[in-house]
């Protein structure tokens, strides 16, 4: 690390010493014993501009306090049938670890429908997985490997991505904004697999809009990405949709639910659900049957992120119009799979 960056960290530390005790308390819960590494994440997110990074972090801490994020792992989505419905329509899971010890988060982008519960449950679920990653998964990996592990890898499966995904852009933008502003620099690399035409068309117009720092993190792989991913993780850590040579599916692959890291029956989701249930019982020892989502304020996206979301929406509309035109004039059916 160069001298300028070290000086930026010192300045940032001095500024954080001046915040009130409530902000310091939630910062302590957030950094999990690694305050410097956390400051560096926010500095990277703001290109090492101390004033901007400081504002970003203070805004994040205020958001955590206002929305009781420190307590969100004690607020289960219940009853279990509702949580299972969320898991079946918001496909995310932990498939294993890279050879360097980084958690591998699998995301079924194309087949997530987000249609089994209100938006608030999906936002709550996403934040809970973020917090569980940061408070349980990453500290455990750090202890196991004897060095700080503060980031993960994400494998995004685009199988099944269709033009109908346009209806999900608002929710996905909200989740992305929460991550960008409150969990910056937590993903080392995004691997995108099983890419259909609809993604390729959008990627061409979105890629130039991304910051260079973000573009470097994104790798679009051939097919299911198995061969490339085996260079950085063992076969057992591959998401189930990457375990074959051809294009795959996020669902119903393998020899049962134990192989499907999206399923509530997978060990990761069982452990997460039990962790939240026990935390809730410690706070309020009553039956976990009441429904009621946590309403989290979604921060306003940056101008850059808003522009990207609008570009994606516009591109989807263009493809949709082409599809309609082709169907009506030529009898040709456009397929995005």
TrEMBL record:
CDD domains: SEC14. It holds the Pfam family CRAL_TRIO. PROSITE patterns: CRAL_TRIO. Residues 79-239 form the CRAL-TRIO domain. This is CRAL-TRIO domain-containing protein. InterPro entries: CRAL-TRIO_dom, CRAL/TRIO_N_dom.
């Amino acid at each position: 690390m160069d001298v300028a960056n070290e000086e930026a960290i010192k300045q940032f530390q001095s500024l954080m010493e001046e915040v009130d005790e409530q902000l310091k308390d939630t910062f302590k819960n957030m950094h999990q014993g690694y305050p410097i590494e956390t400051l560096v994440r926010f500095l990277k997110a703001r290109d090492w501009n101390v004033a901007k990074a400081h504002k970003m972090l203070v805004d994040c801490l205020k958001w955590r306090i206002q929305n009781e994020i420190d307590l969100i792992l004690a607020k289960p989505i219940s009853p279990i049938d509702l949580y299972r419905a969320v898991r079946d329509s918001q496909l995310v899971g932990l498939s294993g670890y890279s050879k360097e010890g980084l958690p591998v988060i699998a995301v079924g982008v194309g087949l997530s429908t987000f249609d089994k519960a209100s938006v608030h449950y999906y936002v709550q679920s996403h934040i809970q997985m973020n917090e569980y990653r940061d408070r349980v998964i990453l500290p455990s990996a750090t202890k196991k490997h004897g060095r700080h592990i503060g980031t993960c890898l994400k494998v995004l499966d685009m199988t099944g991505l269709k033009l109908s995904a346009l209806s999900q852009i608002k929710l996905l933008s909200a989740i992305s904004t929460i991550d960008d502003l409150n969990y910056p620099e937590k993903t080392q690399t995004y691997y995108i697999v099983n890419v259909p035409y609809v993604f390729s068309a959008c990627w061409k117009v979105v890629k130039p809009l991304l910051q260079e720092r973000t573009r470097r993190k994104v790798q679009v792989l051939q097919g299911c990405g198995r061969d490339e991913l085996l260079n950085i993780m063992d076969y057992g850590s591959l998401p189930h949709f990457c375990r074959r040579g051809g294009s795959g599916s996020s669902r119903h692959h393998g020899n049962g639910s134990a192989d499907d890291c999206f399923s509530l029956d997978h060990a990761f989701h069982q452990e997460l659900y039990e962790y939240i249930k026990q935390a809730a019982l410690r706070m309020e020892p009553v039956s976990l049957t009441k429904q009621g989502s946590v309403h989290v304020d979604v921060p306003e996206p940056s101008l850059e992120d808003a522009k990207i979301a609008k570009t994606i929406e516009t591109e989807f509309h263009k493809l949709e119009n082409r599809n309609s035109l082709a169907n009506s004039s030529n009898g040709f059916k456009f397929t995005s799979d």
